[in-house]
């Protein structure tokens, strides 16, 4: 995962069907390139001058030809300047550098039976995005940090830089004695450097990986050692992070162990490191390591609102998905990112509980739906892009995760995870395509799933359902009509997919599975009595939009008796009855009493939307909720009342609540209710350091509200 940014969007029946804003089909078609050789090993030797922000280096390349008359090779080389190319005997080879390529002529031809070794010597005297020299600030030490994804290793290592070529690697790096060096694989040793005051780290990656997964991290790190059995696990952090890092990263071995078991494949590398990088916002995977943003290390107070645990789990999952098995070319990047995104959901379900995981899945689905409506729809497997980064979007991350969730529903847990394990074992340390996964799923399950993958991977869009039901008391029959209307969009199919229908009575529930194949389907169910709730998509397996008229009584029952996702749906749908005393009472009860915080938060927001002035007592109670997000929503509601008498309350909340989100919302509430006499207080609050500048941004927003109040 390159940047993990997740926003909350609860599934709603009323998402506007907005046309594509970006015509992605005008982008060029990019296919897997041809190549003349298979690179086997890179031995990279670097002398890094941190003061001048430059390096001298050499890469000894071992390769084997893929044809029988190879007399020259072309490497990727951007920004770096090549000085010499030498054959295995140290004799010079002719070369030409230009157009971001290095062309090398051999002294003779080689066949596919040969192994060829030569050395490229070079220097780099400019700042490049693939290897960043980051100046010291008051919060971070000076550091050098690589960012090779998707094709930036070529900026500091002459190499063949495309994911379908995997190599083993050595990284031998000389730096000042006060700095530590991290790279891939096993640390062979640390020796005195050729110059006084320098030392040399020697790292060896003994199992093949792709060049975008190369890591080089240099800083005066504190290294915290941990383990999972015999597996070394370490955390490379700033010295000021040491105590907080031990707590923030404490679950790392536990996560690795979880993925070992759920994938049926033990962690494949020599060690696992997590290293802090000042240029990372979220996280980025490298083989046997993950680069994490500074926000990964949290204080106990920051941890209330800004847990990095999901990102940490996601990056660990990449050690299998992306590193062990790697997309052959960038149209197959879902194999890296969809699996890692679904894996962080699986971890949350295991460790955080069913409700938190269900909410996470809703958020993932919502992130995709926003992109589909506001930007574009595309197939998940897609060859049209100007640069690989365009395929790293909400179709690849959350939509792909939602598709895997549907596949798991279709196959059942046992078969789904057998497919996963077999795929990892069958293609370990190799590059893979979507077709490889399709064949593996077919082999393990015995099911021809081509239809599933054609719909959900090779076609754009998602299902849009319109559901209607009718109860016939005379025949004791429940009729259900299900329409699929997504074919209004170009290239979007009518889906073949099973869906579960739940029939709820006071003390029991019956679930029926039906198959959808047509744009309009009608089903009849004989029941002993009228159900109190008919739930479409029981279990929340489908990626969908849904229009489903329900009575107030049914929604009131659902808001109290369904699973968490169903309760959220009911709270939202009750907006149609927002003036009903029964609905107001139900929202009030749920705001105070529901067992899950997101349901309480949603109820607070609905009360604020429709009955703000009459619900002040509710908000005063819920602003003391045990969950910070519910407290923040309640303070938002109170602030929008614009009652100057509440100013003292908001200041007290700002000064006493531990949550940065709550503090920030209290500042905004001061802006909503205060006048110019509050500007000094807000100006001081803007100076307080907080994660993601939460307090600074809130204080500035509050000051703007006072200076330019809404009419």
TrEMBL record:
<dbReference type="Pfam" id="PF13646">
    <property type="entry name" value="HEAT_2"/>
</dbReference>
<dbReference type="InterPro" id="IPR001930">
    <property type="entry name" value="Peptidase_M1"/>
</dbReference>
<comment type="similarity">
    <text>Belongs to the peptidase M1 family.</text>
</comment>
<dbReference type="InterPro" id="IPR027268">
    <property type="entry name" value="Peptidase_M4/M1_CTD_sf"/>
</dbReference>
<dbReference type="GO" id="GO:0070006">
    <property type="term" value="F:metalloaminopeptidase activity"/>
</dbReference>
<keyword id="KW-0479">Metal-binding</keyword>
<feature type="domain" description="Peptidase M1 membrane alanine aminopeptidase">
    <location>
        <begin position="250"/>
        <end position="456"/>
    </location>
</feature>
<feature type="domain" description="Aminopeptidase N-like N-terminal">
    <location>
        <begin position="40"/>
        <end position="213"/>
    </location>
</feature>
<dbReference type="InterPro" id="IPR042097">
    <property type="entry name" value="Aminopeptidase_N-like_N_sf"/>
</dbReference>
<dbReference type="GO" id="GO:0005615">
    <property type="term" value="C:extracellular space"/>
</dbReference>
<dbReference type="GO" id="GO:0016020">
    <property type="term" value="C:membrane"/>
</dbReference>
<keyword id="KW-0862">Zinc</keyword>
<dbReference type="GO" id="GO:0008270">
    <property type="term" value="F:zinc ion binding"/>
</dbReference>
<dbReference type="InterPro" id="IPR011989">
    <property type="entry name" value="ARM-like"/>
</dbReference>
<dbReference type="GO" id="GO:0043171">
    <property type="term" value="P:peptide catabolic process"/>
</dbReference>
<dbReference type="InterPro" id="IPR050344">
    <property type="entry name" value="Peptidase_M1_aminopeptidases"/>
</dbReference>
<keyword id="KW-0378">Hydrolase</keyword>
<dbReference type="GO" id="GO:0006508">
    <property type="term" value="P:proteolysis"/>
</dbReference>
<dbReference type="GO" id="GO:0042277">
    <property type="term" value="F:peptide binding"/>
</dbReference>
<keyword id="KW-0482">Metalloprotease</keyword>
<dbReference type="InterPro" id="IPR014782">
    <property type="entry name" value="Peptidase_M1_dom"/>
</dbReference>
<keyword id="KW-0031">Aminopeptidase</keyword>
<dbReference type="InterPro" id="IPR016024">
    <property type="entry name" value="ARM-type_fold"/>
</dbReference>
<dbReference type="GO" id="GO:0016285">
    <property type="term" value="F:alanyl aminopeptidase activity"/>
</dbReference>
<keyword id="KW-0645">Protease</keyword>
<protein>
    <recommendedName>
        <fullName>Aminopeptidase N</fullName>
        <ecNumber>3.4.11.2</ecNumber>
    </recommendedName>
</protein>
<dbReference type="Pfam" id="PF17900">
    <property type="entry name" value="Peptidase_M1_N"/>
</dbReference>
<dbReference type="InterPro" id="IPR045357">
    <property type="entry name" value="Aminopeptidase_N-like_N"/>
</dbReference>
<dbReference type="Pfam" id="PF01433">
    <property type="entry name" value="Peptidase_M1"/>
</dbReference>
<dbReference type="GO" id="GO:0005737">
    <property type="term" value="C:cytoplasm"/>
</dbReference>
